[in-house]
Design brief:
20 strands; Rossmann fold; six-stranded parallel β-sheet; 20 helices; 3 domains; globular
Length: 558
C-alpha cells in the first residue's frame, strides 16, 4: 500500500532507506563504500527502525543477510560498494540462488555519466549478476526508487525465492524527488489445482514403498506442522534434501536421514527401491539425486513433484504428477488426508532402521570419538538451537550423528560454499538474539570469513563456533587420496591457535582433544555469554567419518 506523498522532496539516499523500511527490512548488513554515502546517510535517519550491521568483508555481509532470509522467509538485505565490493559479494548471491533464499543486494554504482569508459571500479551489474540472480536492475532516477525497490522485494519472494541485485548510480542518490513510498502488495499464494490432492492420494494408496523428500524454503511453523502431520499420519518415511535438516524432526520414527553429499549408502539404496517418490519443495538437484543417478530421467519411477516454480518441475526428471503450489499452501491442503489402509509399515520401519544404524557411533582411533562427543553435545543443547554449517568433510559428522529437533533450525549452503558458516551464525544470532546459535566449520572455512567475529563483538551477538581442525582441506584431500594416493599437493594447512584467536577479541576460547571434553567446553562457552570458539582437534588420518587416509590409499592401490 502506498503512503501519502510527502510535500518535501527527499534525496535518493533517503528514499532508498525509506523504501527498505516500507518493505519490512529490519537489518542491513553492509561494508561501507563511497559509492553509497547518501544511502548510509539515509539509514542514519532510520537508525531507530533499521539496524545497520557493519561487517568486515562483503561475502560475510551477504552470508549474514542470506541467513536472515532463511530464518525469516523475508528478504535479507545487504549493501556493498561497487567493483571489488560487488565481486566479493557474488558468492553470497550464488548461495542465495542455489539455496532458493530471498535476498536483496544493493550495490553502489559509478555515476551514469561515466558509463562505458571503464571508469574507476566500473562493472556492468546486469551482465555480471544475471546468471546467478533472479533479477538485476539499476536505478538511475530517484523518482523510480519506490517502484523498483518494491518490485525487488516482490521478486525475491515470488515463485522460487532467490536473490535480486539492485545497482544504485552514485549521483541518483543525491537527487531530490517527491514520490510516495511503496510497500509490499497482498498476493494470495498459488494453491494446488483442484484435482491435485485427489490424484496424489490415489497414487499414494497404490504404493507399497513410498518415500517423501522435503526441501525448499520459506516454510512457516504452521506449514511444517501440517506437512509433518500428513506424513506421520500416513506412516511415510521422510528424508530431507541436502542441508534441509531443519524441516523435519530428526528424532522422529519417520525420519530417514538426509539425501545429499555424504548420504548413507543404505538410504540411497532405499531411495532407489522406493516405488513412489513424494518430492516436496526440493528441486531434485545434483546432491539430492546423487549426481542424477537415483532414478531414470524418463520417468519410470513415479515421482510426485511439488514446487512453487513450474519450470523446476520436470526440469531433469519427468514426473508422474507435478503440483505447482506455495509449499505452506500445499501442506495445508493435505490436512486430514489419510490413506485408508497403508501397506508400508514394514517398509517405513526398515528405512528408519537404516537411519538408526547409520547414526550409531563406531570406534575411532585416538582420544576423540567425535561421533560420541557430538551425541553427548546434542543432549545439552537448547530445544530452539539454530545450527549453521560450513562446507567440507567435517560437516558430515554432525549430519550423520546428530538429530535436528522439531523447534531447531539448520542453515547450510547447498552450493557448497566454504566461508558460509561463521557469518551465517552471526547473522542468525543478530536476527534471533534470544536463541543459542552453534556453528560447525572446518579449519579451512574458519579462516575464510573468521574475521567476521569482529562483527559479532561489534553488534553484541554471541554465537558458539566449533572449529574442526585437521590441518587440511579435508574434502579435496579425500578426493586427492582416491585419485592420486600419497601425492599430497596443495591441501595441507597451517593454522593459528583458534582459541587464542577469539580471545584476542575478548571472547571465550576452548580447545578439545578428547571425547569427554566437548560438553564441558560448550557449557563454559555458553555460560560466558561471549562469542566463543571451541577448537576441536581431530585425528588428521580420519579424513571422513567412514574412512581414514590409510584406507583410501589401500583402496586406490587395489
Amino acid at each position: 500500500m502506498a503512503d501519502a506523498a510527502r510535500p518535501e522532496g527527499r534525496t535518493g539516499g533517503q528514499l532508498l532507506a525509506d523504501a527498505l523500511v516500507a518493505n519490512g527490512a529490519t537489518h542491513v548488513f553492509a561494508v561501507p563504500g563511497e559509492s553509497y554515502l547518501d544511502l548510509l546517510d539515509g539509514l542514519y535517519n532510520q537508525r531507530n527502525r533499521i539496524e545497520l550491521v557493519t561487517c568486515r568483508f562483503e561475502a560475510g555481509a551477504v552470508h549474514m543477510a542470506e541467513a536472515q532470509g532463511k530464518l525469516t522467509g523475508r528478504p535479507g538485505v545487504a549493501v556493498v560498494t561497487r567493483g571489488p565490493g560487488a565481486c566479493h559479494a557474488a558468492i553470497g548471491v550464488h548461495v542465495a540462488q542455489q539455496d532458493s533464499t530471498p535476498l536483496v543486494l544493493l550495490v553502489g554504482q559509478i555515476p551514469v555519466s561515466e558509463t562505458d569508459r571503464e571508469t574507476f571500479q566500473e562493472v556492468d551489474y546486469r551482465r555480471f549478476f544475471s546468471p546467478i540472480a533472479k533479477w538485476v536492475t539499476q536505478i538511475d532516477e530517484a523518482e523510480r526508487i519506490p517502484e523498483l525497490m518494491a518490485h525487488a522485494f516482490d521478486v525475491a519472494v515470488s515463485g522460487r525465492p532467490g536473490p535480486v541485485v539492485v545497482a544504485l548510480s552514485e549521483e541518483m542518490q543525491k537527487h531530490l524527488a517527491s514520490v510516495p513510498d511503496i510497500g509490499p502488495q497482498p498476493v494470495l499464494p498459488p494453491h494446488p489445482a483442484p484435482d491435485a490432492i485427489p490424484r496424489l492420494m490415489q497414487m499414494l494408496a497404490k504404493a507399497e514403498k513410498p518415500l517423501a523428500i522435503l526441501g525448499g524454503t520459506r516454510w512457516t511453523e504452521e506449514g511444517r506442522a501440517a506437512i509433518r502431520d500428513f506424513l506421520v499420519g500416513n506412516d511415510i518415511p521422510v528424508a530431507v534434501a541436502f542441508r534441509r535438516q531443519g524441516l523435519f524432526d530428526g528424532t522422529s520414527a519417520h525420519y530417514a536421514g538426509d539425501l545429499g553429499v555424504g548420504a548413507d549408502a543404505q538410504l540411497v539404496a532405499k531411495a532407489k527401491e522406493a516405488d513412489l517418490i513424494l518430492a516436496i519443495g526440493t528441486r531434485l538437484g545434483e546432491p539430492v539425486s546423487q549426481g542424477y543417478t537415483l532414478w531414470d530421467m524418463a520417468g519410470s519411477k513415479p515421482i510426485i513433484h511439488v514446487h512453487p516454480e513450474q519450470s523446476e518441475i520436470g526440469r531433469v526428471y519427468r514426473v508422474a504428477l507435478g503440483v505447482v503450489s506455495e509449499l505452506n499452501a500445499f501442506a495445508q491442503a493435505l490436512r486430514g488426508q489419510r490413506v485408508a489402509q497403508p501397506r508400508w509399515g514394514a517398509w517405513r520401519q526398515a528405512v528408519r532402521a537404516a537411519r538408526e544404524a547409520q547414526a550409531k557411533p563406531q570406534e575411532y582411533d585416538g582420544p576423540l570419538n567425535l561421533a560420541v562427543a557430538l551425541q553427548q553435545l546434542e543432549t545439552v543443547l537448547p530445544e530452539d538451537t539454530i545450527f549453521t554449517t560450513d562446507a567440507g568433510n567435517f560437516a558430515t559428522w554432525p549430519t550423520r550423528f546428530m538429530h535436528v529437533r522439531e523447534k531447531q533450525d539448520f542453515l547450510g549452503p547447498t552450493n557448497g560454499a566454504m566461508g558460509y558458516g561463521v557469518p551465517a551464525a552471526i547473522g542468525a544470532a543478530i536476527t534471533n538474539p534470544g536463541r543459542c546459535v552453534v556453528c560447525f566449520v572446518g579449519d579451512g572455512g574458519a579462516l575464510m570469513t573468521g574475521q567476521e567475529l569482529a562483527t559479532a563483538f561489534h553488534h553484541g551477538a554471541a554465537p558458539i563456533i566449533l572449529v574442526f581442525n585437521n590441518g587440511m582441506y579435508g574434502t579435496i584431500r579425500m578426493y586427492q587420496e582416491r585419485t592420486y594416493p600419497g601425492r599430497v599437493s596443495g591441501t595441507e594447512l597451517t593454522n593459528p591457535d583458534f582459541a587464542r584467536f577469539i580471545e584476542s577479541f575478548g571472547g571465550h576460547g576452548e580447545v578439545v582433544n578428547a571425547t569427554e571434553e566437548l560438553v564441558p567446553a560448550f557449557q563454559r562457552a555458553r555460560a560466558s555469554g561471549k562469542p566463543a570458539v571451541i577448537e576441536v582437534r581431530m585425528n588428521p588420518d580420519q579424513v571422513t567419518n567412514r574412512a581414514t587416509i590409510a584406507q583410501l590409499r589401500a583402496q586406490a592401490a587395489r
